[in-house]
Amino acid sequence: MEEPKITMLSKLSTLSNNYTLKLKIISIWRKMMHASKNQIFRVDMICMDEEGHTIQASCLHRILPKFDQFFKLDQCIVISRPSLAPYNTSINHTKNNQKLTFNMYTQIQRTDDWKGPKYCFSFVKFRDVVENVVPINSPVDFIGYVEVCFNLEDTNKKDGTKGKRLNLKLKDIDDQQVTATLWDDFAIEMHGYFNNPNREKHVVVLVHFGVVNMYKDQPGLSTSFDISRMWINAELEEMSSFKNSFIEKFASTPSWSDNVGSYLISSVEDSFMNNPSFVLTAFLGTIEKKKKVILVGTILAICSEKNWYYNACSYCKSGVEESFITVDKDDGSDEVEDRMTVLCTNTKCKGVDIVSLPRFKIPIRVQDSSGTVTLTLFDYEAYKIFKKTAKELLEVQDKVNLNYNFLF
After folding, report:
1. Tens digits of residue pLDDT in 33-47
2. SS3 of 313, please?
3. What does the buried/exposed string (b/e) look like for 185-195 if buried means 16 or more CB atoms within 10 Å of the residue's CB?
């Protein structure tokens, strides 16, 4: 029997249904009925052809019994006589405005004859994310070294159900850091991996079909609920290459030590007490080269005569100068108005449309067995203790002051 001619996704046309596709299912998820959460309404997939082009495919519940046996992750299938429907969504991971649909005339069979790529990743640069080069809600793939895995959190979904969220601090090969948020099963899987006592010291994560999001007024990365796929220290060529290059590059830096690795913050104590690189305060003056150190001591006091926060650049976190300038109004009238301008004090800052964000800068007096020293608790460390941002605490402070003034 003559093999059917295979049509590539780039050649699809709505003018005919008489074509055959060879595709690999690279993501699959199921949408449940609104009235019955135990009943499938539709199966959605992202499929790839041997040229690496992708398209979303959907199969409604009435057609599903005929084809469900073929719908497996990473399964290669040959599809004859499918149909096309418009695909309009706010986040399109395939960049294709059409989607495949299946009907009773469609034929599907499995195949092992696959000559295309295993996966087709297009990794986003972290700097492009933090500099807003890539718009919010853009679909992306991302890979990064996990510096910090935070604790698992409970969330409330829009439909009233409970979910899980977990934040990561990722770093790419260019030393650019970004926050990544994992949701639900991805969050549970990552948290379970970090709590495994036999896990690898250095952790790399790869997310296929992720998205650029906003977290605490900063651009970051996120899984895209059921659509995404995630690998942790998997035997993928892309992950092995990234991990080896990352460790080789940063192992030669002065701040890198044998104790450096991906770590989990499940409590304040875990973030520093289980690290052997302790330094006494009396020895701080003997350190000649810049490096990371850990002090174990008691916080005696907060230096209340100094501010506990500073106004920071939304791009580089340096301090900013705020001032008012008088400008003409935009309405074309002859009137003027005062507008605030924000100028970063870092001359090397490349940020655009900078805004001022309050960040922690808490001066504290710390004492150990060798003496007492003044230290500064900056934003990242302070957040681990208070579980609130400086902006959130300022809002609380403003409410307290408002109520106090109201009483008197």
Report:
1. 766 667 888 899 999
2. strand
3. ebbeebbebbe
Q: pLDDT (tens digit, 9 = 90+) per residue, 340-394?
A: 788 898 888 888 878 888 889 999 998 877 788 899 888 878 887 888 888 888 8
63 in the same domain as 167: no
Residues 6+ apart with CB under 8 A from 318: 312, 344, 345, 346, 349
User: What one-letter code names the amino acid at 258?
Assistant: D
What is the tally of structural domains in the chain?
A: 3
Q: CA of 166: how far to CAs of 23, 139, 201, 248, in Å? A: 33, 20, 19, 28
Rounded to whole angstroms, the Cα distance separating 49 from 99 reads 14
Give the torsion sign (CA, 134, 182, 92, 22).
positive
Other C-beta atoms closer than 10 Å to the C-beta of 147 total: 15
Distances (CA, A) of 247 to 90, 143, 174: 37, 14, 12
Give me the domain span that covers residue 359. 287-407
Q: Domain end: 81, 110, 139, which one? A: 110
163 belongs to a structural domain: yes
Q: 83, 82, 73: which is closest to 44 by C-alpha?
A: 73
CA distances from 172 to 53, 92, 188, 404 (A): 26, 25, 23, 48
State pTM to two decimals.
0.66
What is the C-alpha separation between 213 and 272, in angstroms, rounded? 30
Nearest partner of 214 among 180, 265, 238, 169, judged by Cα: 180
For the record, the structure tokens of 330 come out as 């935009």
